[in-house]
Amino acid sequence: DIQMTQSPSSVSASVGDRVTITCRASQGISSWLAWYQQKPGKAPKLLIYAASSLQSGVPSRFSGSASGTDFTLTISSLQPEDFATYYCQQANSFPLTFGPGTKVDIK
Amino acid sequence: EVQLVQSGAEVKKPGESLKISCMGSGYTFSSYWISWVRQMPGKGLEWMGRIDPSDSYTTYSPSFQGHVTISADKSISTAYLQWSSLKASDTAIYYCARTGSGHNWFDPWGQGTLVTVSS
Q1: Which residue, A89, A91, A58, A100, is CA-closest to A75?
Q2: How confident is the model at residue B100 (pLDDT cuts 50, 70, 90)?
Q3: Mean local confidence (pLDDT), A69-80
Q4: CB contact, 8 Å: A100 with chain B?
Q5: Looking at beta carbons, which residues of chain A come within 8 Å of B35?
């Protein structure tokens, strides 16, 4: 199985801050990576697919990038509605696997 | 609007059987795979398996193979996840989610079904 790790596990930030979350795959997955946002009591929501493509309807302050087996989700200017948990997911091979999540909370 | 609507919360006893559902609307149901994802209380997301509704071909995660059964009825645009003998450790929220042809990311997701197994 491909293992996904995320760092940090949690981050405290203020509205307007730039937030960066990193995800690392245990082996090469090309650009087969997605990012999701999950708010308490809600289903996850797709933000980024193919490592850097913004899902329709998602604000442009969200962006994704890739370098080898390292992937980054950046929120350029944190908004109140962005406080949530973020998960990466490798879509390269089965079983599909998720990172453990990064919780973004209010500083 | 593409939508997945799941069946309601369930409370069961250990050893009981259960089948939960996920109905798709707003798209051609048989053209997209449906996956099931588990989220245990306070924990992360785990992919359980998927089904192609057009022919009911399934792929399971080794972690869940033999413990659950995924099925679908394309005539009513519904996928199912079932257990023959529940355990307390099956207590979790279960999400269904759609994946497209040629990729394996999930969009949209159902609202989730909370399954509680307790004696």
Answers
A1: A58
A2: confident
A3: 97
A4: yes
A5: 96
